[in-house]
Amino acid sequence: MYRGLRPARSSRSCDNRHFGFGPPRASVAQRGRACTRATFHESTAIASTTASPVDTYRGLLSRYFGFSEFRDGQERVLGVLAHDDVLAVMPTGSGKSMCYVLPALAAGRTLVVSPLIALMQDQVESLTAAGVPAGFINSNLDRAAQNRNYLDFVGGRLKLLYVAPERFANDRFVAGLREAGVNLLAIDEAHCMSEWGHDFRPDYLTLGSVRERLGSPRTLALTATADPAVQRDIARLLGITAAPVVTSVDRPNLKLAVVRAGGPAQARAWLLRYVGERPGQPGIVYVRTRRAVDEVAAALCEAGVAAAGYHAGMPAEERSLTQRRFTLDEVAVIVATNAFGLGVDKPDIRFVVHMNMPGRIESYYQEAGRAGRDGDPAECTLLYDPRDEQAQQYFIERSHPNEERFRTIWAQLVDDAAESGGAPVRRNGPPAEEEGYATGIAALREAGLIDPAGRLTSDDPDAPLDLAPVRAHQRYAEDRLARMVDYAESGRCRHLLILDYFGEPAPERCESCDNCLGEAAPTGAAADAGLREIIATLRDELASRYGREPADIMGPRTVRELATYRPHDRGELLETWGIGGVKLDWFGREVLRAIGEWEEANPDAPARPERPVPTGRRQVRLVEAEERPVDEALYRRLTEWRIERARRDGVPAYVVFSNKTLREIAALRPSDTHALSGVWGVGSSRVARYGDEVLAVLNAV
What we know:
Elements: H1 26-43, H2 53-65, H3 74-81, E1 86-89, H4 98-107, E2 110-113, H5 117-129, E3 134-137, H6 143-154, E4 160-163, H7 171-180, E5 184-187, H8 207-213, E6 218-223, H9 228-238, E7 245-246, E8 254-260, H10 264-276, E9 283-286, H11 290-302, E10 307-310, H12 316-327, E11 333-336, E12 351-354, H13 361-368, E13 378-384, H14 388-398, H15 403-420, H16 432-435, H17 437-446, H18 468-489, H19 494-501, H20 529-546, H21 550-553, H22 556-565, H23 570-574, H24 581-601, H25 632-649, H26 653-656, H27 659-668, H28 673-677, H29 683-699
Parallel strand pairs: 1-6, 1-7, 2-4, 2-5, 3-4, 5-6, 8-13, 9-11, 9-12, 10-11, 12-13
Helix pairs in contact: 2-4, 3-4, 14-18, 14-29, 17-18, 18-20, 20-22, 20-24, 25-27, 25-29
């Protein structure tokens, strides 16, 4: 794309006479690297011998944006950035972008890595309106516009250039930037670098190598949502040694609440009543699917609410128009999937409602945190249906490949590398979260089969593969889901639970959540995180031992109940959701031993909570299928259904259900999804995926 172009001469004091797009000469590259660091330090002072860089930034803040003082955290980040690389963790709405915009105004040539095209465009439009010379390069621009922005950046006419991480796959692009000299590399949404983050993107994995290829410029990594594990991962991948600058994620102006929802109809009725009581107030309603976006938006409109839908399946122009109308208050309520929110700079959003539970607290708090950015009171409400946990577990399993899928990913990468001449791995094909691609890439990188620059180190499609990192990441994701469920079900202060999650101390009570205000319904007990991890590890060991998927052994709800109620004998174990007679005989003794050993090692642990008496539901006691005759006709119908379903999904039939599981279903004839979950080899994830269809086959007999 950039072949044949030559940037204009720069006004920098460094030798920039030989801008080109091939590999730079060693002497120029070395001078460029030294100059990059020196230029950043010297330029931030704007040729002043008395003003500190932070004082300079304060003047620029007032001149360009009309603000006389920094927000919390901004001055700290800028102070460290004047002499070192920085990882900054700052909450949504805290003005993270100023931490690289102000240095860009002082030093120039600031390269900003951003994951979203729409976000780039919004930010560049805002900066341009403030008089800041900024541009972007992405697929929305034609080739001429991309080249023009590139030349303006390396020539010093643009202070900031926004790019997506996949742009660095172009070696000429990177080499030209290095020779021109990048003064500051800013990585937005840096949690995307970490496989432990909630929005991991394989393209971000190469940024450590990209930084070196650019000459190791001063680097600023920014994120609003990174727990300590993710912070360590980002710092390791980028080589940042300074302690991270972490400002409080606490948002005391947000009232946090959880409302128990009995099902979609009840949740929708609650929403219509809630929004109707807040006429004209700007709000966001998050739902899980595009279909739900259309249905809920239509229901609100029918109720007289100025509402509109937003999801990734809509044309780009329609999405932009909808966002614009929301910003201008022509639309009061946006109903959206999680595709909506990044880059939406609307400070007066008064409420955010989640009609489905996200899979992790980071995701929930990032989306909920779009309310009340003006500092005034706002409400964040989660409509909690315990069945949401099954849906999230399904997503976790889809995003973590089994051995067959893992090998398929590797073989495809080998083929792609052969066709491209060894080009770096890029995220192509189906969405990573649906196919396990992203997690597979991270595991291959950890095993050394993909190097830091994203290139394969082997061309053997049958190379030995280690599934252990995938399983470890799956346990981590399930633990994040369990923490989200704990948030929804806990009777403790919800602000405390969030602050504790991000490693921040907090008082036991607040004045802005339903639990502390006495408005929440009674909730259950919480599981011990340490015991939960022990049981999850045991589950994975059993799965490996017997050649099963972990979800076939026990789902996350079963793990959580075991860690919460700590059964002491077989009778108590049978009272646990998802443990029937077959599983009791299979591995019940090992579960009881693990719980007993944990209790011996933790004598000061709280007493076991009483298990609530079930209402309207009996605990299933399934017997071995061999004790009941198999309905052969039903078994054949189930087999026919399995073949058809496997064909639709493009997977082998055994991936849907094994023959043994189908025979047990035909023998036991479960009457509902609860009973179906107790059948050997089913598990909660398969209930969520196939349960309705299986019951339809059973009911058709």
